[in-house]
Amino acid sequence: MVKRELSSLITRDMDFEPALVTISSVDVTPDLKNAHVFVSVLGSKSKYDVLEKLEAHRAILQADMAKQVVLKYTPHLVFHLDDSIERGTRVIEILQKLETPKRGED
Fold it and tell me: What is the pTM assigned to this prediction?
């Protein structure tokens, strides 16, 4: 629920051109006081610029989320970079290199 609402808020209220910013997962602590938000960034924009912009708008995002998501506490948002897409792409590239037959082996 938190992931869905944050995704909606970021898409509607923030602009990260020319990058594509997605929330890959959100881990809320059992006491509901903190939410670790994992963000993927694809494109030419610096990942750290995206994190800085999200941190700068953290209070606004929390306030808007509190209006839509009813929880005992509104969790404090902590943003982290999620590089799992890049790692997956790298693994696929390595596997493709291994599968490509070298000249003279045919």
Answer: 0.76
